[in-house]
Every structure is written in structure tokens, then in C-alpha cells.
């Protein structure tokens, strides 16, 4: 965001988080970011990136330099599910050639961020979008215990009302966000290479 502010200091961003459906009719929002189907055909959309799904856990659960390769190793720990992303584990397991029905003890939390925090605290193994936990992985707060990342079929979208499609400030924001998304994806590919993690693409719809 520093780059956006330097290039356009007159643009002001107010960022909020919510899992509620995006409704531009209230006049409170100019744009939103959502993962998966956008729902409202009257809104304009722009694909940002398709996230990479990876299991993550605390380093305390994984001996240094080791990775798991059997479901029994994963099932030795509680599996942390996000109610906001109920299909994430299934998508990754399908990409890994495993069955979601074979997962062991599960704990359900309301959001993906809560599952990630629980994983970092050693409470189990979460599934996460690598783009959103990159800093935690690089810092060592989280580790990726399996050498497989699954590219989610469903992308993250930028959504805005088609009524303000030509708004100059929105156009600048869209261009900046597209550049940031592309740069982040390049960083993810380098991170996978550095950690010797293989990427496969999901076929789930």
C-alpha cells in the first residue's frame, strides 16, 4: 500500500473485514475482495490470483528437516477445519490423491485465520492459502509438513459496482492491486521452488 500512497497520495483507503455478502447498494463500499463465486452478476469483477493450498503447522509438530508422506502422519494430529472454507481440506486432499473421509480427529473453527493461529500455537494442522501465510512460513512460525501445494480452481476476485466502473481512483486501485497480485504469485512460485514443494492443479468445482 505504500507504493499506492506514494504514487497517488490523494487516494484514501478505508479497509474493513467481513464474511457478509458484499452489497454496494448501501453506499458504504466501493470494492471488495472475495474468494470463490462472486454471486451478483450486476457487479464487475477482476481475477487477482488462484490461491495455493498447503497444510501448515507449528514447527514443534515436525522434526527439523522432515516432511510427512503418509496420511497416518497427518492424522497423528488434530485436523483444523475452517467453517468459512469448508472445502479447502477436500480440495488439497483430492490433489494429493487422498480421501477426505480418511481424515482423523477434526476441530472446527469459524474462520481460516483462527485455524492458522491455532496451528501456529501447536493445536493441530490447518489448511491455508499460501499467499496469506507467506510471512509466517518464511519466519518459521509455521512450517509446511507436506511437499505438495494444490492450486485452487476458485480464484480471489476484486469486485466492484459496475455503476462506478470508470471511477479514476478505482481504476488506479485496480491497476495497483493487479500488479501486487502478480508479484505475489511470482514470490509464491519462488517459495515453492526454494522449499522443494510440488504444485498440482485442482479439478474441483
What is the CA-CA span between the terminal residues?
A: 33 Å
Q: Which architecture name of the domain at 52-146 and 197-201 does CATH use?
A: 3-Layer(aba) Sandwich
Any idea what the CATH superfamily of the domain at 52-146 and 197-201 is called? Periplasmic binding protein-like II
Largest sheet: 6 strands, mixed
How many whole angstroms does the radius of gyration measure? 18 Å
Average pLDDT value?
A: 89
Strand tally, please? 9
Shape designation: elongated
- Write down the CATH topology of the domain at 52-146 and 197-201: D-Maltodextrin-Binding Protein, domain 2
The level 1 CATH classification of the domain at 52-146 and 197-201 is Alpha Beta
Helical content band: 25-40%
* Structural class estimated from helices and strands: alpha/beta
Low-confidence spans: pLDDT under 50, at least 5 residues?
A: none
Roughly what fraction of the amino acids lie in strands?
15-25%
The H/E string reads HEEEHEHEHEHEEHE
Number of helices: 6
Describe this protein's structure.
This protein is α/β, with parallel strands linked by helices and 205 residues long. It has a domain at 52-146 and 197-201: Periplasmic binding protein-like II (D-Maltodextrin-Binding Protein, domain 2), CATH 3.40.190.10. The chain is built from 6 helices and 9 strands; from the N terminus they run H-E-E-E-H-E-H-E-H-E-H-E-E-H-E. Helix 3 (88-95) links the parallel strand 4 (79-82) and strand 5. The longest helix is centred in the last third of the chain and has 27 residues, at 168-194. It is elongated. The protein starts with a helix and ends with a strand. The model has no long low-confidence stretch (mean pLDDT 89).
